[in-house]
């Protein structure tokens, strides 16, 4: 099996995830979003809640191929590469939070953004930390040790929340991670989308999220070692099913929850990701059905860059004002183009799909010119 075939399922899985991230992040109006494209209000899991952990799973899966090169390097060189990549992704996330570096004040004047209120964490920052810590665990403890360490982290996170979280440890106010982030980051540097200063990509909840990367690595390694045989596929389906079953059982005492990234949520999302990847392997590698895969493959070849560009485009929309009411370009496009033509909910969905297509065209242009930006 050649290199391209071996990577195709992963590229399609990763590309589907990136397309999903763009779609759920850019509805025409947050007041008109179909239920499956919204996050669960608190406990529970919607299709949208699968997107981010799937991306972390794909990061781990890709690591199972990339980390083979580490065997030829010294420990110091490996440490340097891991820390450099971690820092670079984290800094890009910080810059994306700060972009476009200016904003409108209450009087409509454009002023520089202040570092005093810069949100420190975010999606890219979590990807960076989970990659970095996951890679260190895998390299220095080896796969078996990394698996054991991840299990300890998941159980330890449960214990921390249960014993230190007060009378309602899995609630917004009772989550100990809230106090940790407030003490270390400060409220001004946290996300405020929940009505209070609360960061869904905060410090403490990053601990279990490492599991999505490590398990993704282990699945990718297992696939490589066993090739794309039917026996391998059956074992993969069994593993995914067991993880989902264990997660649902654990959910009875430790609720599945994305916003505090519970350990049951890790197992649940890893299980579903494993099952979905199994389907892709069966269809693409074993059945040879490759029609339509190129659309997602494009996203999978430049995933981080395309995700960053999706954020850049949205932020620029809010920077530019248009029309007699001085409306931002994002709201103007939905209110004057998509909503009048298609209605509230369909228009909002098509607005998101339009941006998926725009970013696909960017990825297609890069692929045609063999431009692949690796961070």
UniProtKB/TrEMBL annotation:
Pfam families found in the cross-reference section: HGSNAT_cat (PF07786)
Heparan-alpha-glucosaminide N-acetyltransferase catalytic domain mapped to chain residues: 6-159
Keyword terms: Membrane, Transmembrane, Transmembrane helix
Domain of life: Bacteria
Regions crossing the membrane: 12-30, 50-70, 82-100, 120-138, 145-164, 202-220, 232-253, 265-284, 304-322, 342-365
Protein name: DUF1624 domain-containing protein
Organism per entry: Chitinophaga barathri
Organism classification: Bacteria, Pseudomonadati, Bacteroidota, Chitinophagia, Chitinophagales
């Amino acid at each position: 099996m050649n290199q391209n075939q071996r990577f195709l399922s992963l590229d399609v899985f990763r590309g589907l995830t990136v397309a999903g991230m763009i779609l759920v992040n850019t509805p025409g109006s947050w007041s008109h979003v179909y239920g499956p494209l919204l996050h669960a209000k608190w406990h529970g899991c919607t299709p949208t809640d699968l997107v981010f952990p799937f991306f972390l799973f794909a990061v781990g899966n890709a690591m199972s191929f990339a980390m083979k090169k580490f065997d030829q390097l010294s420990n110091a060189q490996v440490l340097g590469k891991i820390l450099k990549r971690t820092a670079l992704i984290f800094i890009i996330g910080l810059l994306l939070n700060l972009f476009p570096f200016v904003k409108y004040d209450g009087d409509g004047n454009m002023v520089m953004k202040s570092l005093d209120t810069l949100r420190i964490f975010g999606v890219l920052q979590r990807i960076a930390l989970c990659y970095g810590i996951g890679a260190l665990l895998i390299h220095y403890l080896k796969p078996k040790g990394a698996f054991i360490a991840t299990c300890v982290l998941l159980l330890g996170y449960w214990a921390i929340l249960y014993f230190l979280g007060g009378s309602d440890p899995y609630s917004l106010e009772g989550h100990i991670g809230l106090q940790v982030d407030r003490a270390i980051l400060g409220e001004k540097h946290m996300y405020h989308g929940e009505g209070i200063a609360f960061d869904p990509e905060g410090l403490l909840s990053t601990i279990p999220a490492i599991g999505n990367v490590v398990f993704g690595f282990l699945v990718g390694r297992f696939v490589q070692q066993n090739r794309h045989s039917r026996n391998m596929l059956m074992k993969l389906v069994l593993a995914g099913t067991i993880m989902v079953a264990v997660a649902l059982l654990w959910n009875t005492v430790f609720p599945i929850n994305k916003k505090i990234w519970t350990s049951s949520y890790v197992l649940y999302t890893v299980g579903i990701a494993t099952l979905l990847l199994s389907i892709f392997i069966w269809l693409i590698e074993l059945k040879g059905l490759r029609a339509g895969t190129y659309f997602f493959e494009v996203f999978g070849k430049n995933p981080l860059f395309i995700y960053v560009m999706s954020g850049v485009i949205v932020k620029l929309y809010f920077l530019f004002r248009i029309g007699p009411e001085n409306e931002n370009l994002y709201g103007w496009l939905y209110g004057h183009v998509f909503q009048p033509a298609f209605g509230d909910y369909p228009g909002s969905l098509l607005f998101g799909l339009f941006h998926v297509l725009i970013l696909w065209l960017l990825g297609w242009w890069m692929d045609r010119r063999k431009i692949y930006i690796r961070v």
